[in-house]
Design goal:
The structure is a single chain. This protein is an alpha+beta fold and 379 residues long. It has two domains: 230 residues, 4-Layer Sandwich (Phosphatase 2c, domain 1); 73 residues, no CATH class. It is built from twelve helices and 16 strands. Strands 2, 3, 4, 5, 6 and 9 form a six-stranded antiparallel β-sheet that branches. A five-stranded antiparallel β-sheet has the order 1-11-10-7-8. It has a three-stranded antiparallel β-sheet with strand order 14-15-16. The protein is globular.
Length: 379
């Protein structure tokens, strides 16, 4: 079965940090979270550089592993050549979707969770000193949760010329939910609370609830949540309705990994289609269903192209962000998504900068990222 993914990504500075050193990649079918580390703004530089290099590598046709290795090389070279960024590094947890399979690479203590049938499983393995001690039987999970060195990493991206990356795959099903997050979320938020949030059908609501809960628990670090919920394609929902003997109601998603226009459609069940027809009623119903499916497919194709090819700078929850897609909605459905958030507040803009942001001019990805740099959204 071909799966489609609804996604939502939120990144928050937390309650105790001056900058947000987390970075998010939303470049369907690639999704990733990076949590930078280093003095001054080096952590933000490391995570941003890793995210950009990873996305560019995959877009250029590299495998996910090769793109992650290129990101490691880029961060290591910047740290080596610029004394202001010496010693910087970042975590990386990334998934590349292919059909009903998620291909992962991972290093550090950001996490990937799978919620399936009401159960939450951590599918990544933390690369931290306390995690190594837990796996070696020298610490309990309870002791690790309060250990003073629980944030010290044993492996990270960019701290050495070559890095050992975990690589694994997860077979995905309809109804599965993936969460990629930084430890600013997984640290303060208990697993049962994460599971409750991921049980929500609306991905925006789920991501918002996770960030809210992390802040409610003290928000000691930057908080990033990237939620993906997997559903069947509209065509397969319709086929199930026709052949499965049950009525179906499905949310159509435009593209594997897209958040473009969605249509909530009542599809006739097999029982009503199989009932004796009078005149042209049954043919008309079948034609209407075919037209509906064609419209969904076209909307999906157009929505996927738009979201992945145009970008603009605007405001997300009071902070500047680069968005992918168009700054419009179709009814209640936005034709855009946050591509990368920044720590710069909307309230800090000068009059000239505000005019540029309010214009929400459409650009290519590189031009939008350059504009973000000019606006002080990142180094």
């Amino acid at each position: 079965m071909t799966l489609v993914a609804r996604y939502s990504a939120l990144s928050d500075i937390g309650l105790h940090r001056k900058t947000n050193e987390d970075a998010v990649v939303v470049a369907p079918p690639l999704y990733a979270v990076c949590d930078g580390m280093g003095g001054a703004q080096a952590g933000e530089v490391a995570s941003g550089l890793a995210a950009e290099t990873l996305a560019a590598g995959v877009a250029a046709g590299l495998s996910l592993l090769a793109a992650a290795e290129a990101a490691n090389a880029a961060v290591f070279a910047r740290a080596r050549d610029d004394s202001a960024h010496a010693g910087m590094g970042t975590t990386l947890t990334a998934v590349l979707l292919e059909g009903d399979t998620g291909h992962f690479v991972h290093v550090g203590d950001s996490r990937a969770y799978l919620w399936r049938d009401g159960e939450l499983v951590q599918v990544s393995e933390d690369h931290s000193l306390v995690a190594e001690m837990v796996r070696g039987g020298r610490l309990t999970e309870e002791e690790a949760a309060v250990h003073p060195h629980r944030s010290v990493l044993s492996r990270a991206l960019g701290t050495e010329s070559a890095v050992r990356l975990d690589e694994f795959t997860v077979d995905l099903r309809v109804g599965d939910v993936l969460l990629l997050c930084s430890d600013g979320l997984s640290g303060p938020v208990a697993a049962p609370a994460i599971a409750r949030a991921l049980s929500l059908r609306d991905v925006d609501e789920a991501a918002g609830k996770l960030v809210h809960e992390a802040r409610r628990q003290g928000g000691p670090d930057n908080i990033t949540a990237l939620v993906l919920r997997f559903e069947a394609t509209p065509a397969e929902v319709a086929e199930a309705a026709v052949t499965g003997g049950v009525a179906a109601r499905g949310d159509a998603v435009p593209d594997a990994g897209g958040t473009g226009p969605s249509v909530d459609a009542d599809l006739p069940g097999a029982e009503s289609l199989a009932a004796p027809a009078t005149g042209a009623a049954r043919p008309r119903r079948l034609i209407s269903l075919a037209v509906l499916l064609a419209v969904l497919c076209v909307a999906g194709l157009v929505g996927g192209v738009i979201i992945s090819s145009v970008f603009y700078v605007s405001v997300d929850e009071g902070r500047l962000a680069v968005f992918s897609g168009l700054p419009v909605e179709v009814g209640p459905v936005p034709l855009h998504a946050v591509y990368r958030s920044s720590a710069r507040l909307d309230s800090s803009l000068s009059q000239r900068e505000r005019a540029v942001v309010d214009a929400r001019g459409l650009r290519g990805k590189d031009d939008a990222m350059d504009l973000g740099r000019d606006l002080g959204m990142w180094p």
